[in-house]
Amino acid sequence: MTPDRIQRSRAVVLMALMLTVPVYAADTKPLDNLLAQQAAADKAAKGAQEQIDKMDDGTQEMLNKYRRTLEDTQSITKYNAHLTEQVVAQRTEIASMQTQLASIETTSRDVYPLMEKMVSTLEQFVSLDIPFRIEERNKRVATLKGLMDRADVTVSEKYRRILEAYQIEMEYGRTMDSYMQEIDGKPADLVRLGRVSLMYRTQDGTKAGYWDNQKKAWVEDLDDARAINDALRIAKGAGAPDLIRVPVPAAPGGGS
């Protein structure tokens, strides 16, 4: 092939290449636009889905808040109803207590004179009774008299203490005990048999006798010393309970 022919062939190839390149570039432009549009559509769809998801989450949260608010409202309504019932019950109780207080005030006015009379009667009874444990019993009466004037002690407590004192005095009538006391300046052992007899024996053994409540005096009676010793032994728990003969003052109007 001659140089001229070779040169012409190169020119033809070059021309063909120049004609081919613009056609290729023109054919790929619509595809790029399509891909770009698809990408934009995908992005828009993704954004729309995100918005939908956000709206769905917000709707669910609002629904949950509504349900909680509804439950709280129902709970508060029930609680208010319960409080209303309590208030009604408390008002009824207050009215009842006010009625009771008024009744107590009236009762206190009626009971107080009765209690004073009971204390006075107890004091008189102790003074007329045989003089066993006389200091202890007089002190109990004095305590009750002081208690009656105290405003810090309730009426019920005062009444309870008075009944307690009466109960103690009743127990004396069916019990037996012994204790020590001076008789005519000498230490002596005393034994009480209910309220039937109060006997004594000096600790040196020189005197023995009993209390005569009619004469309000001690009567010496050494003939009954053995019986008094037996009574003392039983009262102190040193001997078994047994029948004993004890000196008893003569009844009023009777013989000696």
Give an overview in words:
With 256 residues, the protein is α+β, with helices and mostly antiparallel strands. Among the domains are: 110-172; 176-235, no CATH class. Helices cover 66% and strands 12% of the residues. It has four helices and five strands; from the N terminus they run αααβββββα. It has helices at residues 3-128, 134-148, 155-172, 225-235; strands at residues 176-183, 186-193, 197-202, 208-212, 217-220. A five-stranded antiparallel beta sheet has the order 1-2-3-4-5, covered by helices on one side. The protein is rod-shaped. The protein starts with a helix and ends in a 21-residue tail after the last helix.
